[in-house]
């Protein structure tokens, strides 16, 4: 990738979180559970798609879980671009945590939850480590970004936890510090730009005025 070094803007990666689901509202951990968008979630995706279309994206990739796929479909409808679906972009598998509310997780798995929040490598609910999520998701994002034209833009439609770990990996941050990247509101996005020394964070949780983050890792 040489466009940034030669004076161009460089390639951009837009990591876009899916719209609202019923489990988000209930603060219920979705993980890899396949939950659909609410009517509000569809409307969020439609609104955001109109904004993101202004970036003139060159390609769209998405998690194959329906909440991400339906979100991506709204951008595809506006831009006419196809969507490439990848199971590697799914949310973190969190075993027995999935389906539990935030309060239930703390009540039943408090020590595990606290260790995760401290930045320790934890298999939440017996599921994936955050580094394992990055191991599967980041290479797909980088491969697709590598296919962009100079100054091209890739939109990645995924999930809060997967986006955070992917950003952390692409920015070459230590995994214990990934939690420092705040959560994304439903249908908001972060933008990474290509620089001379690698990827850098240009925007985070963009798209609206600040709103509460519901169901961070899902």
UniProtKB/TrEMBL annotation:
Substrate binds at residues 17-24, 67. GO terms for molecular function: phosphatase activity. Transmembrane segments: none annotated. Gene3D superfamilies: Phosphoglycerate mutase-like. GO terms for cellular component: cytoplasm. The active site is at 18 (tele-phosphohistidine intermediate), 91 (proton donor/acceptor). Signal peptide: none annotated. InterPro entries: His_Pase_superF_clade-1, His_PPase_superfam, PG/BPGM_mutase_AS, PGM_Phosphatase. It holds the Pfam family His_Phos_1. PANTHER family: BROAD-SPECIFICITY PHOSPHATASE YOR283W-RELATED, GLUCOSYL-3-PHOSPHOGLYCERATE PHOSPHATASE. This is Histidine phosphatase family protein. The lineage of its organism: Bacteria, Bacillati, Actinomycetota, Actinomycetes, Kitasatosporales.
